[in-house]
Amino acid sequence: MVRIATVVDAEQLSVLNEEFNGEGETTIENIKDSLQDNKQEVVIVDEESGVLTGFVCVQLKRSFCYDDYMPEITEVYVNPKFRKKGIASKMIGFAEEYCAKNYPLHKYELLTGAENTVAQSVYSKLGYTDDKELHLSKRIKR
Predict the structure, then answer these.
(1) Domains along the chain?
(2) Is it the case that residue 42 has pLDDT exceeding 90?
(3) Is 107 strand, coil or helix?
């Protein structure tokens, strides 16, 4: 079942996030706080028999420059045991419908790795195309 994540999901989300992004990126407490208080993010999960199989994170970007929100799908992860079942597509579809019902918007954005051709294939089937913009980032030394 695809649904919005709740604070009860924090421990399982922590495990999935470590599988996806590696250990030490965040804490369970931070995940709980974010699920309760972060109004700029929507977290979607898929659950089967009480087990979370994956998640999608949508950042609700908004600027004074535009009337509409620009929801950006920044994280998509499905546990390898549950892949090839359409779970990512279902979660993204749910995220799109949820955002369309709750926010003024005219497009979705999606961030993925340039080398991640498997994910790009899924996104292409869902109607996402390369907009020829370049995403840049800068790491801060801690």
Answers:
(1) 2-125 (3.40.630.30)
(2) yes
(3) coil
Select from 83, 61, 82, 81 the least CA-distant residue to 71: 61
Q: Which of 126, 101, 102, 1 is nearest to 51 (CA)?
A: 1
Confidence of residue 60 (pLDDT cuts 50, 70, 90): very high
3-state secondary structure of 132: coil
- In angstroms, the CA 79 to CA 126 distance is 20
Q: Which amino acid is at 117?
A: T
DSSP 9: G
The amino acid present at 105, given as its one-letter code, is L
The sign of the dihedral angle between the CA atoms of 87, 91, 94, 96 is negative
Task: Write down the mean pLDDT value for the chain.
Answer: 95
State residue 41 phi and psi, 5-degree precision: -135, 140
